[in-house]
Specification:
5 helices, alpha+beta
């Protein structure tokens, strides 16, 4: 692996593409600006046309569509103000959701061939522990992958 540090990243990407490997072999475990869903038009379309996957306390609304990012998926998280009145509580839960997604996104990136946009919402009325949310996020993402692969067939 130490020889990879010396090779320019553009050259390495060309080598990976020519070898027929996926671009995301060298994926970093980050959740950057391009991977986050920010477009109001896409969010509106998502809630109008989207399909739903639920694993309590999480709910994912998704659509298969082109987006501006080079990544195969863009994600947004939401926590309803109705259930958590204080912004501090909502922000903490959103931070937990982003963190658990960030750690598990490699499962989605390996499985997806087409670009997707999705929003993950928190449905519970009380705050869950990180380990429980992490377990449910894994279940949600695997259920999403199985639904997407069934739709493609």
């Amino acid at each position: 692996m130490c020889f990879l540090k010396r090779i320019d990243s553009k050259i390495l990407k060309k080598i990976i593409i020519r070898a027929g490997l996926r671009m995301f072999v060298l994926m970093k475990f980050t959740l950057g600006k391009e991977e986050r869903l920010k477009s109001k038009k896409l969010i509106g379309r998502l809630y109008e046309e989207g399909k739903v996957v639920k694993v309590f306390p999480l709910r994912m609304v998704y659509i298969q569509t082109e987006h501006t990012s080079k990544f195969p998926a863009q994600v947004g998280v939401s926590v309803p103000k109705r259930n958590f009145k204080k912004a501090v509580d909502r922000n903490r839960i959103k931070r937990l959701l982003r963190e658990t997604y960030r750690k598990e996104k490699h499962t989605i990136y390996d499985a997806l061939d087409k670009p997707y946009v999705f929003m993950i919402s928190y449905l519970a009325r009380d705050e869950w522990k990180y380990a429980d949310i992490e377990h449910k996020m894994k279940k949600l993402l695997t259920q999403f992958i199985t639904e997407v692969t069934q739709d493609e067939k």
